[in-house]
Design brief:
single chain; 264 residues; alpha+beta; 5-stranded antiparallel sheet; 6 helices; 70% helix
Length: 264
């Protein structure tokens, strides 16, 4: 009986502890992801500021500089000269990359987003585009103080960030799953220690009941024997002795029952 109770209590304790641990893990994961995203934003702002500054100071843009920015991992730099895609962008970018840049351009027109015309300085002069796993931080600007007018899109890929987030989530979840058996073992040991006094009291109670049963059985045996003798030998000379023994045993039983009631 106590084994089943111990298992049930261990499961309840383990479930509650696991839920609390999951809540803590989710909080820590949220804080960690927020910090990671802040670092990505800081790196994007640094790169975007470099791109904006050099586009405003370098005229014309060298192919070496452009290729260095295009080859920077998943990032993308798309230039237009008087509304026409530049030769550099047409040659250096792949068809999917050019299509992505055109989609962002359509999104900018639909949302009515105005390009920044000076150096990139403000924190919210950029916007996010795309969904989770393929999201970009986008800087849309224009170099209008020179002719011809150059507009540019700098897309900073958040794909590595989401990959790191995914790996971190898997790691946190794996640690949480691994902790559940350990929590159950701890809960099982804790409930075993907590139930030990109850089990001991239960054993003492069984011993007491067995002892009380034995004490009640002895007077009943005397009464039963006395009644049997009186039934078979009603005129026996031991009647007085038998009645005396039966009376004593009945008094003893009465005291024992009274003691049991007092204990109850």
């Amino acid at each position: 009986m106590f084994q089943r109770v111990q298992i049930k209590l261990s499961l309840v304790c383990c479930a509650i502890t696991a839920l609390l641990a999951l809540a803590i893990v989710l909080c820590c994961l949220g804080i960690s992801e927020k910090n990671m995203y802040g670092q990505e934003e800081a790196l994007f702002c640094l790169n975007a500021n470099t791109v904006s500054y050099e586009l405003h100071t370098k005229n014309p843009v060298s192919i070496q500089w452009y290729m260095r920015n295009v080859d920077a991992g998943e990032d993308l730099l798309y230039l237009k000269v008087d509304g026409v895609p530049s030769t550099l962008s047409e040659v250096a970018l792949t068809e999917p990359e050019r299509r992505l840049a055109e989609e962002v351009g359509e999104y900018i027109i639909k949302q009515g987003i105005a390009p920044i015309t000076g150096n990139f300085t403000a924190e919210k002069e950029y916007f996010e585009y795309g969904g989770e796993g393929s999201k970009f931080l986008v800087l849309y600007g224009a170099v209008s103080e020179q002719q011809p007018c150059v507009t540019y899109l700098y897309l900073y890929s958040l794909k590595p960030f989401w990959q790191n987030v995914k790996m971190q989530r898997i790691g946190f979840f794996a640690v949480w799953l691994f902790s559940i058996p350990l929590v159950y073992l701890f809960s099982y040991g804790f409930t075993s220690h907590a139930l030990q006094p109850v089990a001991q009291n239960h054993e003492k109670q069984k011993e007491f009941i067995a002892f009380a049963s034995h004490e009640l059985r002895s007077p009943l045996a005397v009464l039963k024997t006395g009644l049997s003798m009186l039934e078979h030998k009603p005129n026996s000379g031991k009647r007085e002795r038998i009645f005396s023994l039966m009376g004593n045993e009945m008094s003893r039983m009465e005291r024992l029952i009274q003691d049991l009631l007092s204990l109850t």
